[in-house]
Structure prediction request, 623 residues.
Amino acid sequence: MKNNQLLSRAWLSIAVILVLIALPFFGGGRVIGIGITMGITMIAVIGLQLTMGYAGQVNMGQSAFMGVGAFAAGFCVSKLGFSAIPGLLCAGIAAALFGLVFGAAAVRIRGFYLALTTIAAQYVFIFIMLKLPHSWFGQAEGLRLKAVGLFGFTLNTDVRVYFFVLFVLVVLTIGAYNIVRSKTGLAFVAIRDQENASALLGINVVKYKLLAFLIGACYAGVAGGLWAYYVRYVQIDQFSLWLSIWYAGMIIVGGTGSILGAIIGTFVISMLQEALTFLGPRLAELVGTGSGQIVFAGMNIILGLAIMICVIYARKGLVGLLPRKLTSE
Amino acid sequence: MTTFLTFLVNGALIGLLYSLIALTFIIIYRSSRVFNLAQGELIVIAAFLIWSFSDRLPDNPFIAVLLATLALVVIGLIIERVIIRPLIGADVFSYVMVTIGLLLFLQGVVLVLWGPEIRLFPAIIDLAGVRIGGMVLDRALVYGAIATVVIATGMMIFFNKTQTGLEMTAVAEGHEIALSMGISIKKSLAISWILSCILSIVAAIMFLNGKGLSFAAADVALVALPAVLLAGLESVGGVLIAGLIIGITAQLGSYWLDPLVGGGVADVLPFVFMIIILLIRPTGLFGWKSVDRL
Prediction:
């Protein structure tokens, strides 16, 4: 990438970050809430982009990995008294270990079958969480947390949580860009495009497949931990197969194989969800279904259509529609 | 002893239900090499169509079923034409995501058209249980199991012995080769979707007879996935054995392990089984082994 391009991208990123920092002071409580949820989702989706978009390993279990992280963080904070960052580390590591199991499966199982295996992850996750002792993770009732501490502050207001999430998001996004440009990133793409040829060229396919799942799950775990800090209530129903599918949808709509795509995809789909929630009651009158259902149903219809159209007609997603100067991948 | 036998026989019956659902997946895969993850939604739509038509014609369940079949076939053919056709020959990621997109879309449509409430599916088959020995078995499951065996055997004969069936098998083996022999891929696709839709209707009746129907019924297809994989994605005959194995294992596992872990074994055991199968023998017991070319 030329220096001019690098510079203009850096300025653009700084500008965006400044806007995001200013946001809580101009927007209301609702805006901050949306921002937090979107930020958390973005982290999970960026992780998924690394596993699926860059390394080509289908992963329909990202929400389960997020759940593992959420429960780990919840446990560490509420039962062991950890503060925010050690809690996130626990979350990341726990999720990464769970993800590693499926990374190991990915070594032998490919493509479509891997999708099925990761779908199974969702069910295995639920089963395990329900069977472990009640005193550990609360089984069906879940865990409740007090507000977590961070360097002497307590993250007990939405604004504080917002800035912490923003901070973690920026750090992890920079991390993701670095991974993509590293030897690991190149190996990912080689394996995605031509796995057999990569092996012939001496790329350690096993190692990189494991890494792909480990890193992706780690991101999901951190996202889960942040979720636990924000909502202060972790329960298995919060981590469903639908969410995993939605995350994959965000990647497709935004653009597979691009960090920016993951960010844009998450933003667009989240905004759509907000729009639908806002219009919900009016639409419900039109169609005659309950307003809560119409949002879920409407999102599925729109997202489903968007995915089908993108895959068949617009392979690069929304990122593909942007001018070439902004995207260099 | 009767309890054990009941678990065993129920396992076999449920397993054959899985076989039937597995067949709906396999028939479509056989002709297009596209695995339709949205198949569960088609079964739910089949069920809701039957319910809607039965609601209008309460005294003519068979006409209701016939109308529902016609409607579903039309829907299936539209999906085949608009969505599956462009996907032929595409990479795995593409058709996994498109069929997932289709799944989401159909889920949303079902919710909007029929709402989230639980409806009572008409008892097309008499609700009285079937008594054998000391066991009382679900009549719909028994009839369905018999139907599944008949259908699967019929399919095996169709694909291996009849002209049309052999042509469709050729299409399944390789589209270019089939084309070069003058076989119509479009006809194969259409026939396979029609068959799959009819089987979905049968599966819906067998699975939901007299029970509660809601949009969540689509999950039944996910549970049948292990049976699909164990049989092998192209295997029409093997699906009976695979279904029986999964069903019986799940029920017996439940019988022996439920007391130890507090229940829920029957739900998760098929998936564990599936992962083991995928690790040891990805093409299933009877699937075709393909060569991966660079």
Notes: The CA atoms of residues 102 and 117 of chain A lie 8 Å apart.
